[in-house]
Design brief:
Blueprint lengths: L27 E7 L2 E3 L2 E5 L1 E9 L8 E4 L10 E4 L8 E8 L2 E6 L11 E7 L3
Parallel strand pairs: 1-4, 3-9
Antiparallel strand pairs: 1-2, 4-7, 5-6, 5-8, 8-9
Length: 127
């Protein structure tokens, strides 16, 4: 099975450390969305107020939700923030506060996340 077939939050880890997000110096995250993928898949930011900008480069409508990753498989993820739905060629910007930790990024439209439209956000403590 491919890593995408495992569903949100269950990504296989690549060797050479390429799957780990690097610390960033700003508080803005930009994501490009298209059919069943978001780029980059791994992003990082500082705790506090974040600005999330999404650009829909696909032909279908998409959005992004920032969710907690439940420790227990029976628990539901908590939505921290969600962008509005954007149409092909459009962009949207959302601001929200977030604490240090690991979160998942998912498109909440239909079954887009199960088709591969998800990623990881790592939030580091502000120094």
């Amino acid at each position: 099975r491919s890593p995408r077939a495992r569903g949100p939050g269950r990504r296989a880890r690549a060797g050479c450390g390429s799957s780990k997000p690097l610390p960033v110096l700003n508080d803005t995250i930009g994501l490009k969305l298209s059919e069943y993928q978001l780029r980059p898949e791994y992003v990082s930011a500082n705790a506090g107020e974040l600005r999330l900008i999404i650009r829909n480069q696909g032909i279908l409508t998409h959005n992004i939700a920032v969710e907690t990753i439940p420790k227990d498989p029976d628990d539901k993820a908590q939505v921290i923030a969600r962008t509005p739905t954007v149409h092909a060629g459009d962009r949207s910007e959302t601001r929200f506060d977030i604490r240090p930790g690991r979160y998942r990024l998912v498109c909440t439209i239909a079954n887009h996340s199960y088709l591969g439209m998800w990623g990881t956000l790592v939030v580091y403590p502000r120094k």
